[in-house]
Design a protein that fits this description.
Layout: E1 17-25, E2 30-38, E3 44-55, E4 58-64, E5 72-73, E6 84-87, E7 93-99, E8 112-119, E9 130-132, E10 139-141, E11 155-156, E12 158-166, E13 171-178, E14 187-191
Antiparallel strand pairs: 1-2, 2-3, 3-4, 3-5, 6-7, 7-8, 8-9, 8-11, 9-10, 12-13, 13-14
Length: about 190
């Protein structure tokens, strides 16, 4: 059984790929998974969120959010959740990071990474998501990012990874692969 089920009403079939990247708890019975839809020859479709519940002792995607099974069309929004997602127990927020929209083909600009956040309790309500618009503009609720620059990006040149808060160092760390050609086997650590 496919963990993120395809939906033929949205033009999906058994060949549609779902890159599930991060599972984040909402409460003790429910979580969300961020995923990226890959339509193979047609390219990436969108980044989505699925509701995950425990059924008969197993995690099951019981609901896919969005009219087409995703919220963020990868052509004009970042691929949120594709780099990483993390539930911060200190703030109660779920943070997600994603690469540049697929319409950006410049080799430098396409490596920028953008972020969003949402309170865990609101993770199934798209209108509650906050998008980082850079230091000058900060977080904007319900207003998806449309300016893709070094100012609105939070990282550059990183691959998929995992966020971790170190109580010892009192800092957040991002353990990730590099994104450049020939760099995929190297593991890196960034802190903030």
């Amino acid at each position: 059984m496919q963990f993120v089920p395809y939906n033929s009403d949205w033009g999906e079939d058994g060949s549609t790929g779902f890159g599930g990247t991060s599972l984040c708890e909402i409460d003790d019975q429910t979580a969300i998974i961020f995923y990226l839809i890959n339509n193979n020859d047609a390219g990436l479709g969108g980044a989505g969120v699925g509701k995950v519940e425990i059924q008969n002792g197993n995690p099951v995607v019981t609901e896919r959010e969005g009219d087409r099974g995703f919220w963020w069309d990868t052509a004009n929004t970042p691929r949120y959740g594709d780099q990483a997602a993390y539930k911060d127990d200190i703030s109660g927020y779920i943070y997600a990071w994603g690469g540049a929209p697929t319409s950006i083909t410049d080799s430098i600009e396409s490596q920028y990474v953008y972020q969003l956040r949402v309170h865990a309790a609101d993770a199934l309500d798209l209108s509650r998501y906050e998008y980082w618009w850079g230091r000058d503009q900060g977080w904007k609720v319900g207003q998806p990012l449309t300016e893709f620059t070094s100012e609105t990006a939070v990282m550059w040149g990183v691959g998929q990874g995992q966020v971790y808060y170190s109580p010892y160092y009192e800092t957040y760390m991002y353990v990730h692969f590099a994104s450049g050609q020939g760099q995929s086997s190297r593991v890196h650590l960034s802190s903030r």
